[in-house]
Amino acid sequence: MHCGPPDMVCETKIVAAEDHEALPGAKKDALLVAAGAMWPPLPAAPGPAAAPAAPPPVPDAQPRGGAGGTGPPGGRGVCIREFRAAEQEAARRIFYDGIMERIPNTAFRGLRQHPRTQLLYALLAALCFALTRSLLLTCLVPVGLLGLRYYYSRKVILAYLDCALHTDMADIEQYYMKPPGSCFWVAVLDGNVVGIVAARAHEEDNTVELLRMSVDSRFRGKGIAKALGRKVLEFAVVHNYSAVVLGTTAVKVAAHKLYESLGFRHMGASDHYVLPGMTLSLAERLFFQVRYHRYRLQLREE
After folding, report:
1. Where in the cell is it found (predicted)?
2. CATH code for the domain of 141
3. Which of 95, 270, 281, 290 has its Cα between 20 and 30 A from that of 59?
4. Counting runs of H as helices and runs of E as strands, what totals does the chain give?
């Protein structure tokens, strides 16, 4: 997870499915073939038969860089389009809620990723029994240790949130929509923002970083996260970047399966990642650990 401002690189121009007609013929055909081969269309959501589609409304203004949205702008379809300034608070709320979910996940589920910490906690329980000969006190040791894990997970993640909400997520328009080489998209369902994702280009290695992906918990399981991820991949293909990269401390298996379904390869993990907000105190080292995973989707060889 990152909380610093993005690098200012590369001009951003997003091309969505319905905007391919604006591309020159040869480039358009190449992009359609590439996108079709890499990301097959999402399955249609179950539901009653839809009425014949009405002609799409004429947009009020052309999005920055000639970009358009993906999907119908209203009704039951999900529209992926560029962020608008009026959606600042909605985007911040989705980001905040998504990060807050990581507190119990990191404190409890994340413990399974750290066998040495498990062994240490078991030794502490055994030491307690050896000193007190009390089963009750020994049984209370794991409860206390888990409570401390929750406390320190909350402490560090709230510090990380404070950092993020006072940097790039404080002014999405300024950090992602105005600088070249960055963009921020929202998923809109029935007029409400239900998902977010950002992209930031790295000029030094010609890659794009996928950032800030989050979906409102009430609307998960509908393919919205995958659609948001594909928007970033479209951006990378259109602008001829060599790869898309991302880093995550997510504990849930579903998040990692999502990245793999988009074509990302797991490039490694580290238990020594310093999350913004960490103080690296002894207590924090004992009761808060994260595993940082790196993913990469290679689009072309340099």
Report:
1. Cytoplasm; Endoplasmic reticulum membrane; Microsome membrane; Mitochondrion membrane
2. 3.40.630.30
3. 95
4. 9, 7
